[in-house]
């Protein structure tokens, strides 16, 4: 199994009614050098200025981003080429990140290479610590910038520390 850490930025709270602006992914291994970055043209006329501010983009900028079908096709190929066995989607906030990535894969490619499930990094850390109030974010090395590749890398660094320093039993191939 290959764990792929994903982070997304969106211009609103739900896919379809709003759009995924950009996303980043990194294969979780010791190098963290296999990354993907996609910027997607909006799929809806709806957007939130506040959400766009978080992403660092304006609506005009996003209108010039790439066709979502092209980006999701490229991401599906990247996932296939960079996975050994079944790829596992993991993110800091998989309730949010997963719903956008899953919707976009099904809408634009007809299938999701990650299947029907995802994992949540924060929940994994809470379970490892045995404390539902613990937060993993202090384990990141890469600064959390809201650039999705930076954020995915920081979260992957945290997962690697959970494995190496805290004894998490996980196979990262």
TrEMBL record:
Top-level taxon of the source organism: Bacteria
Coiled coil: none
Record GO terms (molecular function): exonuclease activity; nucleic acid binding
Exonuclease domain residues: 2-168
Biological processes per GO annotation: DNA metabolic process
Alphabetical list of InterPro entries matching this protein: Ribonucl_H, RNaseH-like_sf, RNaseH_sf
TM regions (residue ranges): none
Name listed for the protein in its UniProt record: Exonuclease domain-containing protein
